[in-house]
Fold this protein.
Amino acid sequence: MESAAWYSSLVELHEKVSEGSFFADLSDTLKEIVGFDCSGVMFYNGREVHSIYKGDFSVNFDKHIALYLKGLYLLDPHYNMLASGVDTGLYCFRDILPDHYRETEYYNTFIKPVGITDEYDFIVKIDNCYVDFYMDKLEGKFSPAEEAKLVALMPMVTYLIKTHWDNYDYGLGVQKLATSAKPYQSIFDSFGKSILTDREQDVIQCILNGHSSKSLAQKLNISLSTVKIHRKHIYQKLDIKSQSELFSLCIQSLAIQELNESDDPLGALMAKQ
């Protein structure tokens, strides 16, 4: 059972629900009963990602958040989960990871250098947009007792986040508007379409997201031998030899400006080379 002082902090948090310091106050209140090293808030509107609140991040963490916002979020399991549609609730990062996630270039470029070892997210769905309050450990994992506390608090915390979001203007313009009928458009919608077949595009997305050949075969309902053939053809068409080179092409494609939604960023990149 928590102390009387903590419940007083919870009451004070409710009173600050429409203030600019709300997410910092929420983080401080949760830290009194659950151990985590840093927290933050991301807003996903289907076309871009905004960092709404950042706690006491290290310089290294802050640098990688900047890379994330520039386009690495497209390879984030969180983003792919949101793109498929989820309800308001508490989510554990471990539960949504593909089987070979820790072997991906995304993990080695973003997660590993930052040092994140475990994460829980309070995700609030507002129309087709999502507010994600995340809590990261940089050493160890959340204990079963900590998880139980977060689960118990989920209805209250998500209610407070939703109430705050409805009453505080972050100046995003699209903050309170529903996204279009086709939200969460990704580079993968057009990535490689002028060079690769539709199935090869599917295989690329699975590879970059961290699926092993076995997991990829199950996800796409194809055989392992077919996966190997698709991978061989993709590498031949793109003149590459490794997943690392594929990731590099993806990141370079993200940097290409002035493309329409229907344009192929990979095709545009290959044309420049």
Observations:
- The longest strand covers residues 118-126.
- Strands lie at 38-44, 49-54, 89-92, 118-126, 129-137.
- The CA atoms of residues 43 and 131 lie 5 Å apart.
- The mean pLDDT is 85.
